[in-house]
Amino acid sequence: MAVPKRKTSPSRRNMRRSHHALGANNYVEDKETGELKRPHHIDLKTGMYKGRQVITPKED
Predict the structure, then answer these.
(1) Beta bridge partners of 29
(2) What gap in Å lies between CA 6 and CA 46, rounded to an integer?
(3) Which of 41, 52, 57, 58 has its CA 20 to 30 A from that of 21?
(4) How many domains, in total, are found in the chain?
(5) Which of 27, 32, 25 is nearest to 46 (CA)?
(6) Backbone CA torsion sign across 8, 9, 12, 17
(7) Cβ atoms of 48 and 56 closer than 8 Å
């Protein structure tokens, strides 16, 4: 069984985990409505995706 020869220092452990942080969500402006939306996601207000109607719009 493989056993580490030395204890991993907190600095080395934290450097290894530096890529685990979550990034902020990106938002793009919708060309038709001008509202912010996430890229590659359906606009739930209008039901549009890539310029075509995908779902029926939500009723307010």
Answers:
(1) 36
(2) 58
(3) 41
(4) 1
(5) 32
(6) positive
(7) no
CB 36 within 8 A of CB 30: yes
What's at 8, amino acid-wise? T
39: domain range?
A: 27-60
Q: Which residue in this structure is represented by tokens 């590659």?
A: 40
Count of CB atoms situated within 10 Å of the CB of 45:
13
Instruction: Decide if 51 is inside a domain.
Output: yes
pLDDT of 60 > 70? The answer is no
What is the distance, to the nearest Å, from the Cα of residue 32 to the centroid of all Cα atoms in its chain?
23
Q: Is residue 48 part of a domain?
A: yes
